[in-house]
Specification:
Keywords: Glycosidase, Hydrolase. This is Beta-glucosidase. Belongs to the glycosyl hydrolase 3 family. InterPro entries: Cellulose_Degrad_GH3, Fn3-like, GH, Glyco_hydro_3_AS, Glyco_hydro_3_C, Glyco_hydro_3_C_sf, Glyco_hydro_3_N, Glyco_hydro_3_N_sf. GO terms for molecular function: beta-glucosidase activity. The chain is of the alpha/beta class. It folds into four domains: 41 residues; 362 residues, TIM Barrel (Alpha-Beta Barrel), CATH 3.20.20.300; 213 residues, Rossmann fold (3-Layer(aba) Sandwich), CATH 3.40.50; 117 residues, Immunoglobulin-like, CATH 2.60.40. Helix content is 32%, strand content 16%. Strand 2, helix 6 and strand 3 form a beta-alpha-beta unit. Helix 9 runs parallel beside helix 11.
Length: 785
């Protein structure tokens, strides 16, 4: 009897609670049911608010004069809620200046305070999404700074990429943010373009593998039931053609046809959506064939949603919807620009409430159907439910500090920097340095003692420069002297990437620096010369007063003059390059014993380069992009069509360094490659195997690369395309057999009917250490009907 009473009381209590609790707040209900219930309760104002975000207007709507949360302002301005709040790591007033950024505890505290307002002080208690950048780490105070994207691509290590962005996701989420505007998976084909450094290079397959790994790191491997509290929602940037702008000028038109878009630019997006379930996509600033991406139904509806079945969020790039009116001139008013983008399928406008404030009157007047708004808001709400924000809207402030100081993250940053360095030249096996034969090392150059992390960075706890790294590693074994040699620009502050105008250093001012460097070098046994570029010279050019692209890829300023003067001393010179895109360095190749491409290596950069110089680390990176000999060779990407690259008068036609190239302190040999099946039918698979042997005395990593070329096809195809690679560690004298699969996907092309298919015929399967013909062995695979 007593047991029956308890059961009845329990059932009564459960029914009572259920009657009081709205369905959308019940975590036991399916997400789609919760979304539908919540949507049915929302007013038009509340729905439209979910499509908006705020950034620079935070001080107007949310913050007091000191950048603290102001609940009275929020009550006045945010009573209907908001979709996203952008970059809570910054303070105050939307400043992009690391000096004013919030530390882990401060960021966690303010996201909690803001979230508490939306959960407790708005009618329906809909939590807000906070978004941040996360290109190569959270660009916030005291967050771990990993190597820039182009450097990460040089590792050709997708497992490493996944581990890095798992770490980044934990840092972001611990501070209260949920949505990151990364990774950038544009195909970069013009090194004049300032955003080249943000990409994983020029090849669709390599970028696809890096992109898939990054998304899995950000979101976690299994997102079927949502994204857990240690991960964040990733955003694929930028759909599409952004990486081959006209004349290398950021946001310029991408003069591309549909087949080329499908062959080269779309594969990374497709892979990241299909393999990693990417939850968000950002449209690109540029236009294709006269249609800007934010108004391009072919991209955002036909391909992304209809063909690929993408059901996640489409977010605008910052201010791009406004530009449909102000720059592209597709509409007469900002209101019309907002309606156009919204109808095209852009769910959330960033960075501020600008054009989507006109959605409400558009719906009330009948210009925009309420059904379109409901579909959009449903996607936004689903993202918030999937992130678990209705159940767990807050973060542990103390934990944010712990996660941002993990020793494992520092070690991961060092591993990434080690693996990213590419040995381009090593004449007379000069590297690694033998300290027993050296008394003095001269560290010289504009990048020798400058902290450079690349775009979308802030202020990590520490950054090791090259000079500091060398001093750390050599200790008292040799004397280390230093001279700047020359300066590239006068702006020397930490956040110069964000500064609008920059000032090139006058040639006359650099003459004295060059003379000083010569004097320092005269007393040295070895010169370590740090050249390249600067974060502010090649960067995102987001406005006419904030340029970022260059018309030339030659070394900027007086760097070649410095090199020429030092070379006359007859001392051995090792050049370390710090830059974000391929450079024309024929003069460096002629005058340096050894060359290391270092890119921007993150907070552990100086330690990593020093370890490579001294042989503590064997360099293993491979180039993710082709290095042209001159600016005039652009475009120089390796996977060109057969009729390209005929050549120019009086110029060597080959690139200076091929895609996939990179030396080691040891040597590897390849056996003759063997196909598992020499003949297959359409739809079948094969594989290729090759035995790689380390014939040197040093352990080292080799990256085995497989390229494919369809010999005769109904449409033109590239002369070769990367379709597989494996990174393998080989101890001195060790051999390993590497097998790479050949699937229908790796053999397919877009035919005359724009159908992705395999055509019968002969295919060259090429295996080796780089894309250069001399580094590849080939076999023929026959594909029959």
């Amino acid at each position: 009897m007593k047991k029956t009473v308890y059961v009845l009381l329990f059932l009564f209590e459960t029914c009572f609670i259920s009657a009081q609790m709205p369905i959308y707040k019940d975590p036991k209900q399916p997400i789609d049911v919760r979304v539908s219930d919540l949507l049915s309760k929302m007013t038009l104002d509340e729905k439209v608010a979910q499509t908006m975000s705020i950034w620079q207007k935070r001080s107007e709507f949310l913050y007091d004069a000191n950048g603290n949360f102001d609940i009275e302002k929020a009550k006045k301005n945010m009573s209907f809620g908001i979709g996203e709040i952008n970059r809570p790591s910054e303070n105050p007033n939307g400043s992009l200046n690391g000096s004013y950024g919030r530390n882990p505890k401060e960021m966690a505290a303010i996201t909690n305070a803001i979230q508490k307002f939306f959960v407790n002080n708005t009618r329906l208690g809909i939590p807000v999404l906070f978004h941040e950048e996360a290109l190569h780490g959270l660009p916030a105070k005291d967050a771990t700074s990993f190597p820039q994207s182009i450097a990460l691509a040089s590792t050709w290590d997708d497992d490493l990429i996944k581990r890095i962005f798992t770490s980044v996701a934990a840092e972001v989420r611990s501070r209260g943010a949920h949505h990151v505007l990364a990774p950038v998976i544009d195909i970069a084909r013009d090194p004049r373009w300032g955003r080249f450094e943000e990409t994983y290079g020029e090849d669709p397959f390599l970028v696809s593998r890096m992109g898939v790994a990054a998304v899995k790191g950000f979101q976690g491997e299994n997102t079927t039931n949502g994204i857990d509290k240690n991960h964040v929602m990733a955003t694929l940037k930028h759909l599409t053609g952004h990486g081959q702008p006209e004349a290398g000028n950021n946001t310029s038109p991408a003069n591309l046809g549909e087949r080329e878009i499908r062959e080269a630019f779309l594969p990374p997006f497709f892979a990241a959506i299909k393999e990693a379930n990417a939850q968000s996509v950002m449209a690109s600033y540029n236009e294709i064939d006269g249609v800007p991406s934010h108004a391009n139904t072919f991209l955002l509806k036909k391909i992304l949603k209809d063909e690929w079945g993408f059901k996640g969020l489409v977010v605008s790039d910052y201010g791009a919807i406004s530009e449909l009116q102000s720059r592209h001139h597709l509409t007469e008013t900002q209101a019309e620009a907002g309606i156009l983008a919204f109808k095209t399928g852009v769910d959330i406008e960033t960075p501020d409430i600008t054009t989507y404030q006109y959605l409400k009157p558009a719906i009330e007047s009948g210009k925009l159907a309420i059904e379109i708004l409901d579909e959009t808001v449903s996607r936004i709400l689903k993202a918030k439910f999937s992130m678990g924000l209705f159940e767990n809207p807050y973060v542990d402030v103390a934990n944010a500090e712990v996660v941002s100081n993990m020793e494992s993250s520092k070690k991961l940053a060092k591993e990434a920097a080690d693996k990213a360095i590419v040995l381009l030249q090593n004449n007379d096996v000069f590297l690694p340095l033998n300290l027993s034969k050296i008394k003095t090392v001269a560290v010289i150059g504009p990048n020798a003692d400058r902290k450079q992390l690349g775009g979308y960075s802030d202020s990590p706890k520490y950054v090791i420069t090259l000079l500091e790294g060398i001093k750390n590693k050599v200790g008292n074994k040799v004397k280390v002297s230093y001279a700047e040699g020359c300066r590239l620009i006068e702006e020397n502050q930490w956040n110069r990437w964000y500064k609008d105008a920059i000032t090139p250093t006058a040639e006359t001012d650099n003459k004295a620096r060059i003379e000083e460097a010569v004097k320092v070098a005269e007393n040295a046994d070895v010169i370590i010369l740090a050249l390249g570029s600067d974060e502010a010279l090649n960067r995102e050019g987001w406005a006419e007063n904030h340029l970022g692209d260059r018309s030339s890829i030659e070394l900027f300023g007086q760097q070649n003059e410095l090199l020429n003067r030092l070379s006359k001393l007859g001392k051995p010179i090792v050049v370390t390059l710090f830059n974000g895109a391929p450079l024309a360095i024929q003069n460096v190749q002629e005058k340096a014993k050894s060359i290391l491409e270092c890119w921007y290596l993150g907070q552990e950069g100086g330690n990593a380069v020093a370890d490579v110089l001294l042989g503590n680390v064997n360099p293993s990176g491979k180039l993710p992009a082709t290095f042209p000999r001159t600016t005039g060779q652009i475009p120089a990407y390796y996977n060109h069509k057969p009729t390209a690259r005929r050549g120019y008068h009086f110029e060597e036609n080959s690139p200076l360094y091929n895609f996939g190239f990179g030396l080691s302190y040891t040597s590897f040999t390849y056996s003759k490659p063997v196909l598992n099946k020499n003949t297959i039918k359409i739809g079948e698979s094969s594989s290729i195997s090759v035995t790689v042997t380390n014939i040197g005395k040093t352990d080292g990593d080799e990256i085995v690369q497989m390229y494919i070329h369809d010999l005769v096809s109904s449409v033109t195809v590239p002369v070769k395309e990367l379709k597989g690679f494996k990174r393998v560690l080989l101890k001195a004298g060790e051999s390993k057999t590497i097998t790479i699969d050949i699937t229908p996907d790796t053999l397919s092309l877009w035919d005359l009917s724009m159908k992705y298919t395999v055509e019968a015929g002969d295919f060259e399967i090429l295996v080796g250490s780089s894309s250069a013909d001399k580094d590849l062995q080939k076999v023929i695979l026959k594909v029959e009907n």
